[in-house]
Structures
1.
Amino acid sequence: MAIVIDSSAKRLTLHTANTSYQMMVGEYGYLFHLYYGDSIGDGDCSYLLYKQERSLCSSPFCAGEDRAFTLDTAPQEYSAGGAGDTRLPCIIAEFPNGGRALDLHYFSHELLAEKPALKGLPSLQQGEKTCQTLEITLKDSDSEVYVILQYTVFEEDDCIARSCRVENRTGAPLRLEAALSACLEREAEEDLDLISFWGRHTMERNVERRRVSHGKIVVDSARGTSSAQQSPFVILCDHHATEDAGRCWGLNFVYSGNFAASAERSQLGSVRVTMGINPETFSWKLEDGESFQAPEVILSYSGCGLSRLSSNYHRILRENMCRGAFKDCRRPVLINNWEATYFDFNTDKLVRIAETASKLGVELLVMDDGWFGKRDSDWSGLGDWTVNEKKLPGGMQALCSKINALGMKLGVWFEPEMVSEDSDLFRQHPEWVLRIEGRGYSRNRYQLVLDMSRQDVREHLYQQISKVLSSANIEYVKWDMNRPLSEVWSQLLPADRQGEVSHRYTLGVYELMDRLTTDFPHILFEGCSSGGNRYDAGLLYYMPQIWCSDNTDAIERLEIQYGTSFGFPMSALGAHVSACPNHQTGRTTPLFTRGVVAMAGTFGYELDLNTLTEEEKEQVKEQIAAYKKHYDTINKGEYYRLTDPTRNRELCAWEFVSRDKKKALLFAVGTHVRANVAMPVIRMKGLDAGKQYRLTCQADHPLTKKDVGAKDGVYSGAVLMNAGIRTPMLKGDWPAFCVELEEVENA
Ligand code: GLA
């Protein structure tokens, strides 16, 4: 049983294949967190609860003269602000008299045989899996405010989907100043680290690991998107946890707007981690009879290191978050014209790029920014989604026929949420943008943000975009979003509801995405926000892949993709081979290396293939053929980080193993080739120790001496995982090699 309820002991336990999560209704009816970690079977952790009088810690009213009972030190399952627990609150509610205190007690619980959908929000789908859900209702002691905690157990995946709903039955409005989704409590004696993923444009998701010391750590976004600056995914882990050892708890937020993940070590040393919508940019007026649904957090635990934790997330996001026709089928290898032409293109140029691409095996041409309105630079045109016939004579249909005639699909770029000041849309509807009446507004890339909380704006966008999508055989859409929100204010909402706009914006974006992806199910949608500025589990509900970064430099990508891999599957990671010298860094890397790096994701090209030599074109052909051959291993297999590129400055290696463990691929890039070095040994992971594998090694750099290491031959999984393989002697700038393993039966 995934969920076990011991009514007499008032204990509630959630079980996954390898983990247990336990809560109990304790003294005075409060819901306490007892345990989350490796399976404990039918174990009872209630003995861990204790109470002791502490100076400067208050006792709740219901405890009367019991001075030893305090919420300020208790492990709470969902902490409420204002009534004695002064640590991180999950919920802050203000009553009409201005009072801000909630005193939440267990009220009831219900067991559901499936996972309910979260209205208007992305969330894990149970699909073919059997899922049990536990809903625990808490009630405020002095009012009719109810908080329903929701837990759905994905047993085989070692994941728990957690969220909560607040219901106001007080007869008067209630103002929510915070309504977070999840809370995790840890014991006092534990030496724990928080791993988060910080970044900036073209340098997203760098791994940052810090000790959870006294006080608070806040990782958040107030930019309107989940952001490049911080990712809505954090890991709490043992200070000594590594890829293969130690306890790790992940919180992956299924939300694309402002978020906050906080960790606090309290006066007694216990640790609380919370995650939810960022309270800094949130306030919600909940009328009597209304409820507020907080987004979902996917909790996962691994008792054997970070690798397993990532694998849990990869699997569940791939299988239960991504939806639609492209969830499982092989997605096309694409070529995007952005870095090939920027805004300077027309039908002829695109067709020339496509002609060469199609001959080499590319299957989809993506026409990026610049095909619409007055859009010859980033100064104008956003919002006017009508084809610029000067660039594309005969319109979309004419271009599409030409591309289709080459045997290729056509894809189109949109940035639906934006409008340029110089656009017909802005001239017609200046009231449709986020701005505060009577104030100036901030500019970024000379574009403004449409007020996606407005239904009329969303309807207009739906009409415009669906018209384009129906006008020709368009089979892919890149959905971009290139600036943060500012002056967040909506003309349609009263003053006391302006704090809702950021969240309503995100809900509005989700609604439009849902409508378009539902009505155009044959179209593959790829998310993008200046690259990885809205890279989160929520977006994957609508689009199975996201452009990972505007940085296409293969060497820079090593760290970006490494960081991304902790919380997100490689099948979601948009990666392209681009031209050299690279447009972001000026670095020149071998084409082979660029292919190897882009193959750790949804593979494509972003350059004019006509500029390549015949020899290079042959190489492109081989890369595409290899990617197609290994598609399932890369996109559906297990992914392993073999080195940490932030520590190992010489070699970056990673590996894919097919689900049946019959095939594996090891990719490595020499990031700092040095003279007179030892050739390191890399131990492979995840193979079947008893299987025999045929090893073939491919290295392309003319100076690399392949014959020195990784000798082609047949080896057992046990040998490859324990003794490992020796790397070839890498020479030159940024060399790479690839090792392919295939099971040899009856060897
Ligand atoms: C963003 C995207 C790029 C490209 C440009 C076009 O920066 O991330 O890939 O589409 O916009 O303006």
2.
Amino acid sequence: MMITKTNEQVEMMRQSALLVSGTLAEIARMLKPGLTTIVMDNRIGEIIRDHHAIPSFLDYHGYPFNSCISVNDVVVHGFPNKNELKDGDIVTVDIGVILNGWHGDHAYTFAIGEPADEIKQLIRVTKESLYKGIEKAVAGNRVGDISFAIQEHTEKKHGYGVVRELVGHGLGKNLHEDPQVPNYGKRGQGPKIKEGLVLAIEPMINLGKKEVFTEEDGWTVRTKDGKVSVHFEHDVCVRKAKADILSDYSIIEKEEELNPNLFVSTGAIASYI
Ligand code: MF3
Ligand code: CO
């Protein structure tokens, strides 16, 4: 069942989404070679609790950390650990919060230092594909319109692997609500989306092949070919003419630009806003 939100509820969800954005911006400020992902995760938990919110991933189906931090060939659900980040690492930080009963859930991929050109391209294209999906998140469209837009841009145009096993989702009082939002699909297919529906749209795109596997820990998802994967996620509210993006990348991007240790992935997408 798809649960649409009232305008007041959407504003509450914007606060949740913005707490995630603000936390990601703080992480963008910290990122540097030598930093460990467990230190990042601890800081994430601290920021969320300082804002009287709860890290929603912790204990979700037994997930044991505040956040998911997925490095290089880890696609999603990476466990924070004591390994030091190094130059050239691709780091996806995925954060969920519950603030006043409403979920925020979004993600951003950073690159430490100077990534290879093909990785820069993958990061830019994945981010662009998220905005291309969001452009289709308007009332009366179908989920397949969003899915198709993402797949077209990443798989058909650039030959990247679109992960099939993991999908975007509705968001609200629960972390995962209907509908599922795959990053592959056909135009005009799937459920019709209505005004007030809040979606977490989240392309997970592999540089190489689409196949992934889950490690023994039951969570860590990696690419089968060992090539890197990128993941961007926004929380958006479906509206009549144009989707309302509740999360805010601009504060993260500002920190990315100010941090000399990070590759800046802005530029290609400026046209949407
Ligand atoms: N952004 C992911 C999702 O929407 C993160 C969930 S991680 C979990 O599914 F630990 F909460 F499962
Ligand atoms: Co999500």
